[in-house]
Specification:
Multidrug efflux transporter AcrB transmembrane fold; Gyrase A, domain 2; six-stranded antiparallel β-sheet; alpha+beta; NADH Oxidase; 14 helices; Protein translocase subunit SecD
Length: 535
């Protein structure tokens, strides 16, 4: 145990040098350092860096209503005329958790095609997502001679809520942090709430605007007849069309059934046009590109509206078939608006409109104060620990102080390497591990003191001290490491931050207290031929 061959010494020194290099960006500005040097400092959490805290809810009624609205669009496609079947005319009416499909045109005998409508509805009514085999998403029953009632069962509602929560978290992350570098924290709360923490974001209203958009993107053919538009404005809308407006197009009649939808979009980004004005570029996937090409090929001369949340963003005229699936939206956007719209389009459509329950802005000043207080506390704490360790154990106490400094450096190096976020609970975890490292040193030194008092030589006392303390140190640290793993697995947000720093601190403290301190002790004993430690 007291043998330190050259390779082991080099390994220990290599770890310490690596730690200093990795932790360096936390102490000095490394932006102008050579390319091979690390430049990433530890990310600071919301409580240290400041930012926005938002708690939002997905109302179950909104989820059900949204799914029924989507199903109504599917019904329009299922009831539309095709080459081998007649259309079924109807009017959908949403009633909370149900939707009434009222058939509007009987046949020559005065009968409504309810049976045919039920068959078509059964084909588009898929199974419950993640549910048991046999369960359908919607319960569809006949309602009188000319009606069909579509409702949602409790099992289907639970599956819808679970699916909506998962999709909403994905979309929120894509909208708020499209590049994946903002270190936001998203935490589910219950079965329909989400907590968002965005460090460094100063404006909660911008986030709320970004997240309150549905993100429903469609490409619709346009009926541009002035007479039809005037009739629609008077309240008589051409069947199969809707009257929508845009800031640059004015009122237009767009076809209800879109030619291309948001799910056909593969990527979206902010760009610039020929005059260097912000625009939105996006690319369609293979299926969307095919539908886009066929639509532009078969409808030359017509307007083709690009609609976002029932607002016409653009309505260019089709002059020729457009292959490739690359599309752009130009307009009077600011750079921020174009970036936000691109993020909304790329993230996709929200499964339901979210409601904001709580919002807080954490001042960066509070974070700076916390960092400053933590820094002062660490300096004072380390100074007191160093004073008492040196006072109590002399030279061995100095070695213990070196190991504590090395321990802190290695913790910050590991946090920088992992890209972990440091929060106030994380700082508490670091302080706790420093205390455990001091405790490990005290255990070893007390054992050495006992062995020396029993008359053993310094070499025998040191070897026995480290051997007898090893089991106790490992037992305490392994138990705490298991607790940290459990906290990380079951906890969230700040609890995970505490668990990460605690786990890293345990590993580094065992290394510095048991390996680094022992190496210093043996080096001193061999160099100065020590006969006895003044412990």
């Amino acid at each position: 145990m007291l043998q330190f061959p050259a390779w082991k010494v080099l390994l220990v020194l290599g770890v310490l040098v690596w730690g200093v290099v990795m932790a360096l960006p936390n102490a000095v500005n490394m932006s102008n350092a050579p390319g091979f040097m690390p430049k990433q400092a530890v990310n600071l959490g919301l409580d240290l860096r400041g930012g926005v805290y938002l708690e939002m809810e997905i109302p179950p009624a909104e989820v059900i209503s949204s799914r029924l609205s989507v199903f109504a669009r599917d019904v329009r496609s299922a009831f539309a005329r095709t080459a081998d079947r007649e259309p079924i005319y109807f009017q959908p009416e949403l009633r909370g958790r149900t939707m009434l499909i009222k058939l509007s045109r009987p046949d020559a005998d005065g009968n409504y095609p309810v049976e045919e409508a039920l068959r078509r509805l059964d084909r588009i009514n898929g199974p419950i997502e993640g549910g048991l085999a046999g369960g359908k998403t919607f319960e569809i029953t006949r309602a009188g001679q000319d009606g069909i009632l579509v409702s949602v069962s409790s099992a289907s509602e639970s599956a819808m809520l679970e699916d909506a929560l998962s999709k909403t978290m994905t979309i929120v992350r894509r909208r708020v942090d499209p590049e994946g570098v903002a270190e936001i924290s998203l935490t589910p709360s219950g079965n329909n709430r989400i907590v968002l923490e965005a460090p460094g974001e100063p404006d909660p209203e911008r986030l709320k605007t970004l997240l309150s958009r549905d993100g429903r993107m469609t490409f619709n053919l346009v009926e541009s007849s002035p007479a039809e538009i005037a009739s629609a404005q008077a309240g008589i809308v051409k069947p199969g069309y809707r009257l929508l407006e845009g800031p640059e197009t004015g009122p237009l009649l767009v076809r209800e059934i879109p030619e291309v939808v948001g799910s056909d979009i593969a990527t979206a980004s902010q760009g610039n046009d020929e005059a260097n004005r912000p625009q939105i570029n996006f690319r369609l996937n293979a299926n969307g590109a095919r539908k886009f090409y066929e639509t532009t090929r078969n409808n030359s001369g017509q307007l083709f509206a690009i609609v976002l949340d029932d607002v016409i963003m653009s309505a260019p005229r089709i002059n020729e078939p457009i292959p490739g699936g690359s599309v752009r939206i130009t307009g009077t956007f600011t750079m921020t608006e174009a970036q936000d719209l691109a993020a909304i389009i790329a993230a996709g459509e929200m499964p339901a409109k979210v409601q904001f329950l709580d919002q807080r802005v954490v001042s960066s000043t509070l974070g700076e104060d916390s960092i400053e207080s933590g820094y002062r506390a660490a300096i004072v704490g380390l100074a007191l620990v160093a004073f008492f360790m040196i006072l109590a154990y002399g030279l061995q106490g100095i070695f213990a102080v070196f190991s504590l400094v090395a321990n802190i450096v290695l913790i910050f190096a590991a946090l920088s390497l992992l890209g972990a976020t440091l929060t106030l609970p994380g700082i508490a975890g670091i302080i706790l591990t420093i205390g455990m490292a001091v405790d490990a040193n005290v255990l070893v030194f007390e054992r050495i003191r006992e062995e020396q008092q029993n008359g053993r030589s310094v070499w025998t006392a040191v070897q026995a001290g480290y051997e007898r303390a090893l089991i106790t140190i490992l037992d305490a640290n392994i138990t705490t490491l298991f607790a940290a793993v459990i906290l990380y697995s079951l906890g969230s947000g700040p609890v995970k931050g505490f668990a990460v720093t605690l786990a890293l601190g345990i590993i580094t403290s065992v290394f510095t207290a048991f390996v680094f301190t022992r190496m210093l002790t043996i080096f001193w004993m061999k160099t100065f031929k020590t006969k006895r430690f003044a412990i």
